[in-house]
UniProtKB/TrEMBL annotation:
Name used for this protein in its record: Tripartite tricarboxylate transporter substrate binding protein
A Pfam family this chain is assigned to: TctC
Leader sequence segment: 1-23
Organism of this sequence: Falsiroseomonas oleicola
Keyword set, alphabetical order: Signal
The keyword Signal is annotated on this UniProt entry: yes
Stated family: Belongs to the UPF0065 (bug) family.
Highest taxon of source: Bacteria
Amino acid sequence: MRRRSLLAVPAALLAAPAQTVMAQTDWPTRPVRIVVPFAAGGSTDVSTRLLAPRVQQILGQPVVIENRGGAGGTIGSDAVAKGPRDGSVFLMGTISTHVLAVGLYGDRLPYDPERDFVAVAPTVMVPICITVHPSMGVNDLAGLIALLKANPGKYAYGTGGAGGSAHIGAVAFLNAIGAEATHVPYRGSAPMLADMLAGQVTLCFDTPALIAPHHAAGKLRCLAVATESRSGLMPDVPTAAQAGLPGYKAYSWFGLFAPAGTPDAIVTKMNGAIRTALLDPATAARLVEQDLPPIAEGSPAEFAAFLRRELAEWVPVVRASGATAN
């Protein structure tokens, strides 16, 4: 009896991992929660809600979106980092939560973007565009660059907030052209846009979705989009490279993350669901309509490598800008 009992122990130990693997293969067996670490209605929220119905169909379980904003997205991100590792919760992270926050918060950032998360899948890339008020008197990017270089510190530019992707993109632009301008940070893009339309600030950096209607109406003039492709909302606007500034880029990106320790089988399955949803013609079309170009390629390993490159490229720019989190 004693021998049989001792022999039964290894068998039981072998059975437990097998049951765990089976549970991971069957995942999900209950609703999946995706935390959006920003308020409802923003680009991160909109893109997640456009993806969710198709992901829900693929997984066969409800996908619940939870908005948990505050502190530039770090509150919701930290909650997920400390959340369950069973595939019940994911984070729709961004360049702000996983790259720029490292430079803004330094040692005060309550999580490590690489250590505390596992990269699941990228979702969309949002371009930043360079826009002027007609009163500035420039018609193209070359004209703006010449004006700024000839008048160091004379002009100001607006963004939706200090330390965001638009602000850091503006810093990178000024560094690229060797010019100086004063940053005017607003509490969001809406008040910045109001001042732009009124001519109280004459240069801004923001997304095409915000600028396109006013560019079309002639109230603002978008000079360049800082990604490799033109914006579908403003096909007449050249890329920065086409406008004479090759190598300059400014953008935001969104992507799904899980708490570190989430089983590989779950991460792989969720990656497949996200990629399938992004390749769905109807879903992709709705994203493009909102100027949220989908990124339909990228394994978890490739997304993790992309994150490492982004940290290496942008964190030094954030620190050099002097921007900090209040």
